[in-house]
Design goal:
The protein is of the alpha/beta class. It folds into three domains: 2-30 and 403-516; 35-125 and 160-234 and 334-398, FAD/NAD(P)-binding domain; 237-331, D-Amino Acid Oxidase, Chain A, domain 2 (2-Layer Sandwich), CATH 3.30.9. 45% of the residues lie in helices and 19% in strands. The protein contains 18 helices and 17 strands. The strands form three sheets. A seven-stranded mixed beta sheet has the order 10-9-8-2-1-11-17. The chain has a seven-stranded mixed beta sheet with strand order 6-5-13-14-15-12-16, sandwiched between helices. The chain has a three-stranded antiparallel beta sheet with strand order 3-7-4. Helix 4 links the parallel strand 1 and strand 2. Helix 5 (107-116) runs parallel beside helix 9 (361-376), helix 9 packs antiparallel against helix 10 (385-398) and helix 14 (457-476) packs antiparallel against helix 15. The protein is globular and about 70 Å long. The N and C termini lie far apart (48 Å). The structure holds flavin-adenine dinucleotide. Flavin-adenine dinucleotide (FAD) binds at residues 67-73, 90-93, 100-105, 185-186, 219-222, 225, 241, 329, 331, 348-350, 356, 359-363, 365. This is Squalene monooxygenase. The chain crosses the membrane at residues 6-26, 485-503. It is found in: Membrane. Its cofactor is FAD.
Length: 528
Amino acid sequence: MNYQYILGGEFLACSFAFVYVLYTLVEKKKPKEIASSSTYLKTNGPKNGICSSLLQEAAGGTDIIIVGAGVAGSALAYTLGKDGRRVHVIERDLSEPDRIVGELLQPGGYLKLLELGLEDCVDGIDAQRVFGYALYKDGKNIKLSYPLENFNVDVSGRSFHNGRFIKKMREKASYLPNVKLEQGTVTSLVEKNGSIVGVNYKNKSGQEFTEKAPLTIVCDGCFSNLRSSLCKPKVEVPSYFVGLVLENCNLPYANHGHVILGDPSPILFYPISSTEIRCFVDVPTGRKLPSIGNGEMTHFLKIVIAPQIPPELYNSFIAAVDKGNIRSMPNRSMPASPYLTPGALMMGDAFNMRHPLTGGGMTVALSDIALLRNLLKPLHNLHDASALCKYLESFYTFRKSTSSTINTLAGLLYTICIASPDPARKEMREACFNYLSLGGVFSDEPIALLAGLNSSSSTLLYHFIAVAAYGVGRLMMPFPSPKRIWIAARLLSVALGIIFPIIKAEGIWQMLFPSTVPALLCTPYARE
Ligand SMILES: Cc1cc2nc3c(=O)[nH]c(=O)nc-3n(C[C@H](O)[C@H](O)[C@H](O)COP(=O)(O)OP(=O)(O)OC[C@H]3O[C@@H](n4cnc5c(N)ncnc54)[C@H](O)[C@@H]3O)c2cc1C
């Protein structure tokens, strides 16, 4: 019966989607970002000769300046330092960060740690292995394991205290003799004739300095002050995460993330050490974030959220609320829309953000770093500005194949997971849960996408269409009534309304047809 739902509904959904895709592609003949990047280079960028001489002037003793030593900056410093580059990292605060972000690294991110030689940074910090997710809805639950059969035994997700992980990566980078890690705050980028030639910064004691280098990489995180000169930021805040730490309890499925499809939106649990479990309660922006200070938050967590918590975690949840260590963070999403700026690049959250429901941020950052390392490898002389510009342009294009899939999945899942009184949206959420419950390829491939083990955008689109089709099929069986046909039509329009804005923001052309984008074809890396 389940397969009949899929087949019947799939035909309808595919026809609908095909017409829509065709229309959108005809409308959008050129990829927007690359078009604007190239325009920028042509109109604002320096001529090659000028660019080279400017950047040579900026030479000094540093090849690369990195702004910020969070997840992206510290991993990047180690990676480029290991390749022999002279790296100067400027980080606002070198003490161990105490944050509620970046605590679950997906297996795809762990593979990138291995590729970069940073895997030992998850050792000795009481990191926990993660083997998949458990999904809860209306009292039912399913276990979705990462498909790790074809990998070495050490490959899995890892969850930890973010600050401990960053501290290990900073230490590892600073052991390299050609990496200088300095505490200081970058106040601005130094620009000369359209090129970035360095940064102005204040050191720990407030003295002002200018540092110059042929390449500056901005990794100053989600609250970036520097990104506005390197991209056109379109930041959205779809929700907030309210974070708590549960103690003295075990997760129903050990070493698994737990997602409760709750009301108003998802609730997450995963281990961050052998004795602590992180809980995130998502509060959509449309709803006022209850105040922590005046007790509204405690009331909200106890009255609205606690009844939805699995019984095994209930007492510890209440104890954590009573303990009062409640913190919140805005969940931002921002598609990558860089201006191709000679001498500068962005990485990590400064550059591109997605909803953290799927824990994809660190995987995207680490995979960008691995890509950049490979791209820059043949370029021994970073002072060759015109070559460097070409490499940077290819970076922005190449990265799409992984980042767009992770970003799109995060946007899709978050939108589907929000509770709604709309019958079509309810049906979509139910269809998603039931589709994943089918097991086999219906859960393995979606969970591989979530894990960062598969970055195929076509696989993602296929499963999204299949979920919508499954939902339509369920409504048509056993007999379609006019009301059910109406809900099915609404479900399809909801599905399209969810996916197209997300894909559009990612760049339809680059995401679906990356091999047709010119920057891909003109770098030595592409030829290799
Ligand atoms: C609530 C929440 C939960 C999340 N959970 C996960 C998860 O489980 N898994 C996952 O993969 N991702 C998660 N993410 C996303 C993840 O945290 C980010 O993708 C990741 O931290 C990005 O790393 P980054 O280096 O860009 O930024 P950060 O790690 O924030 O580092 C930025 C660094 O720059 C420094 N800095 C800032 N300004 C300056 C300046 N002017 N001068 C010098 N230094 C400066 C800061 O001090 C900081 O050290 C989550 C995000 C949120 C909001």
